[in-house]
Design a protein that fits this description.
The chain is an alpha+beta fold. It has three helices and six strands. It starts with 10 loop residues before the first helix and ends with a strand.
Length: 108
């Protein structure tokens, strides 16, 4: 059983999941601070290169299984055309203005 994106607690994280699932690059990047960073499996990555490869050019999709930390921590069944489906953990840092300044993901 998964959590519908519109039921997620944190508005910025909710918008992030919706942007990923809609493959909406414009909405995705509008959620991020200009200097946003990210890591995958503990290694910092170039956010734009990573997002293009892992989300937008490979039909990435997030099915949220659980949320913690007021909605800023997720466990997700993530799938894309490159890797198939895998269980991943996501952690978001959100500014007071509601933008994501960092996200971290990796195998859960």
């Amino acid at each position: 059983m998964t959590i519908a994106p519109n039921k997620l607690s944190d508005p910025a994280v909710r918008a992030f999941v919706n942007a990923v699932n809609a493959h909406d690059e414009e909405a995705f990047y509008e959620l991020l601070t200009p200097d946003a960073t990210m890591s995958d499996d503990g290694s910092d990555r170039d956010l734009r290169v990573w997002a293009d490869k892992e989300i937008f050019s490979s039909a990435g999709h997030m099915d949220v299984v659980t949320e913690t930390q007021g909605g800023r921590g997720l466990v997700v069944n993530y799938r894309n055309d490159t890797w198939g489906e895998m269980r991943t953990a996501w952690k978001f840092t959100v500014t007071d203005g509601g933008h994501i300044s960092r996200f971290e993901t990796g195998q859960a």
